[in-house]
Amino acid sequence: MKRVLITGVAGMIGSHLLDYLIEKEYEIIGIDNFSFGKIENIRSNLGKDNFKFYRIDVGDYETLKILSKDVDVIVHLAAVKKISESDSSMATLKVNVNGTENIFEAARMWGCKVIFASTSDVYGMSPDIPFCEDGDLLLGPSMIKRWSYAVSKLYCEQMAFAYYKDCSVPVVILRYFGGFSPRSSFSWSGGHIPIFVDAILNDKEVIIHGDGKQTRSMAYVDDLIEGTFLAIENEKAVGEVFNLGNDEEMSIIDTALLIHKIASTGKELKLKYIKMEDIFGKYKDILRRRPDLTKAQNLLGYETKTSMEDAIRKIVECRRKEIENSG
Fold first, then answer.
1. Domains, the chain, ranges and CATH?
2. Catalytic residue among 26, 123, 149, 176
3. Spans of the chain, pLDDT less than 70
4. pTM score, two decimals?
5. Which end of the chain is flanked by fewer CB atoms within 10 Å, N or C?
6. Does 20 participate in catalysis according to the annotation?
7. Is the dihedral of CA 43, 46, 48, 50 positive or negative?
8. What is the rounded distance in angstroms from the CA atom of residue 152 to the CA atom of residue 138?
């Protein structure tokens, strides 16, 4: 039986990974400070013999050091995500960098394998579509706060390779592309799909940034969890970076139209367009985002099994039940 420590265990990916590994009878230690995660996401596993939960912060190195003893793998998901220009970037930079360093130090001490959750944001505005793991990265001006998330994750990727090459810590980097599930936050941190679903089911305006022609490749959480599990299990993954997600590319406006069609509310789709500069200031939104999954397919045996349409159908059905029950 493998022993796995999951940081950010009460978040969307963390809680689904917990469910998956518990079912496979792994022994899990989970930590979360609930700044983003929710106790509801892990409640069904509390009290199980093979799950121990601790409400701590990844900044607490002394406790991390104790909890990671005798652990085989650390899956480091805890992070502060991207922000708007009106928010402070200090937490994004400090938590992501200092927390990750604590994880690698603990892993170095006890000889743990680390699965580090990075992001497709590190590709920035690269024109090389689809994004490939060994491709060049193109970030915007450093004075724009919104780049702080991508910069923090890219720095941590460099840190991961430093610990791998200099300290022999087994490391796998996963660049997650957008993912969603019924546990996604219905705020911007959960991505556009849950927000659009909620708006359409409640007969509210769907807010479109810019002209809506920008594209995203969004994956249902089950595919992300399967890829993460393959990275945990496969020793050939050590020292590598992998894109994980769905390579089905869809524009924002087409996503709204598809959700409206699936939801079949009988109400008109209400779209409200807001200029990019009114939201992001000088930050230029990334116009296309699609992963090259060849490496994950060849080295990990990864494949996406849930189409965008099927995934959206799951979210619509779940959210509709929640709205009906709350009413």
1. 3-181+218-247+290-305 (3.40.50.720)
2. 149
3. 83, 187-190
4. 0.95
5. C
6. no
7. positive
8. 14
